[in-house]
Design a protein that fits this description.
about 130 residues, two-stranded antiparallel ribbon, about 15% helix, transcription, about 20% strand, 3 helices, Immunoglobulin-like, alpha+beta
Length: about 130
């Protein structure tokens, strides 16, 4: 994708896909009752564009569009769960898509307010905050 005239447009051929990874929430395995009692947070989820990542981060290509999915998996289906294996298929698995979560990965922000917000909220952007760089 490329951002042109205030909209995203398809640009060229896609990169070769990377082996898919699944984020297994740190509160797993838990009952539905447990999940309903608290906010489900994904603040431990880490994204990277490093295809050689060995830390279990979710690998994404820059300038590509992504649709996150949430899989609810019945406990007896979850014995084979692994970040590097496909999500099991069957009656014990329900997948939810939220269209409002579609996003496009970028390498640089064009909007200074977004740049400032990202620097202010990113605990790893200390160098940007200390030097006043954007």
């Amino acid at each position: 994708y490329v951002y042109h005239s205030s909209k995203w447009m398809v640009a060229g051929n896609a990169d070769s896909p990377v082996p898919p990874r699944v984020y297994i929430h740190p509160d797993s395995l838990a009952s539905g009752d447990t999940w309903m009692r608290q906010v489900v947070s994904f603040d431990k989820l880490k994204l990277t564009n490093n295809e050689l990542d060995d830390q279990g981060h979710i690998i994404l290509h820059s300038m590509h569009k992504y649709q996150p999915r949430v899989h609810v998996i019945r406990k007896d289906f979850s014995s084979d769960l692994s970040p590097t294996k496909p999500v099991p298929v069957g009656d014990g698995v329900k997948t939810f898509n939220f269209p409002e979560t579609v996003f496009t990965t970028v390498t640089a922000y064009q909007n200074q307010q977004i740049t400032r917000l990202k620097i202010d909220r990113n605990p790893f952007a200390k160098g940007f905050r200390d030097s006043g760089r954007n």
